[in-house]
Design a protein that fits this description.
By secondary structure, the protein is mostly beta strands. It is built from one helix and 21 strands. Strands 1, 12, 13, 14, 16, 17, 19, 20 and 21 form a nine-stranded antiparallel β-sheet that branches.
Length: about 300
């Protein structure tokens, strides 16, 4: 079976579409998208990390100057941890465009990419490009966060897709959580149900009753799908008559929830632990407090959430 990462206009399910732009006035940088790959370096901790590939273009503001640009890249995540570009994970895509890879913990959420062309003084100082918020949708009962695609397998013209999602219970009653509560919708509005399947050393999606104020983050597999199906929407049915959905169409130009998310400055201080979800849960609670505050004052206002 051939494993391959699906390109997702992420970043890990970013709330706004690509491309993203930044410049120091001399050098321009454009990010066209990003996707994940498994990290298979033979390291004992390889299952805790992933490769985050960033597809970018680097060119001069003066288009007539075709001299190559030498730059050093670093990625900062939501907890201000910094990761250097791994040179062995850098691949040329032609003049002025490259895939640059970073080995990061699986739970890492990118915040900024720093571009440093200062090896050549004429190319100016380093500058940064900020990534946008994760795709999420929320109401008074539940918040769903889309972190992106973990991997995709294609065999005999059928594929399985594994998503990274988070759920938080905003209400006062337990939420039923199982793979059967989730539906994936393709570009033709065909619906696929979540699967409990897993393989060796990979946990299946849990079946639990999530308590009030509780949160969880897990892998969710859909398949088999037609090799022609393109995921465009993820739906979570949390009761017989109620559901929440997210637009995850990587070719739609946007990664916005059905309810447009707003920023949550109060959540900036919430930290996630490097190897557990305890910090992620703290971030969830901080954001949910803001969600409830806004719901009290304005039922139509929605908030970002981050596990």
């Amino acid at each position: 079976m051939k494993w391959q990462a699906l390109a997702l206009i992420l970043l890990l399910g970013l709330a706004q579409g690509y491309p993203l732009h930044a410049s120091n006035g001399i050098v321009d940088c454009t990010i066209f998208g990003a996707f994940k790959d498994p990290w298979t370096a033979g390291d004992a901790n390889a299952d805790r990390y992933m490769i985050l590939n960033v597809d970018l273009g680097l060119m001069r503001a003066n288009a007539s100057d075709s001299a190559p640009i030498k730059a050093v890249y670093s990625l900062t995540d939501g907890n201000d941890r910094v990761y250097r570009n791994a040179q062995d994970l850098t691949k040329d895509l032609g003049p002025k465009r490259s895939l640059i890879g970073f080995v990061v913990p699986k739970e890492a959420i990118p915040k900024t990419l720093t571009i440093d062309p200062s090896a050549n003084v004429a190319d100016g100082e380093q500058f940064s490009l900020s990534f946008n918020e994760l795709t999420n949708s929320t109401n008074e009962n539940v918040t769903m966060i889309y972190y992106g695609v973990l991997r995709s397998s294609l065999y005999d013209n059928r594929k399985n897709i594994e998503f990274d999602i988070g759920i938080a219970n905003n209400g006062t009653k337990k939420l039923p959580i199982s793979a059967n509560n989730f539906t994936l919708v393709d570009q033709w509005d065909w619906r696929y149900s979540g699967s409990k399947q897993n393989n060796v050393n990979r946990q299946a999606f849990p079946t639990i009753d999530l308590p009030p104020n509780g949160s969880m983050r897990s892998r969710l597999v859909f398949g088999p799908l037609s090799s022609l199906s393109r995921p465009v929407k993820l739906v979570y049915a949390y009761s017989n008559n109620s559901s929440l959905s997210l637009d995850i169409d990587s070719e739609g130009g946007l990664h916005s929830g059905d309810n447009a998310p707003q920023s949550c400055n109060e959540c900036a201080n919430a930290q996630e632990d490097k190897t557990t979800l305890s910090g992620s849960i703290k971030a969830t609670k901080a954001r949910l407090a803001k969600v409830r505050e806004n719901l009290t004052g304005n039922e139509s206002k929605k908030e970002n959430d981050e596990l």
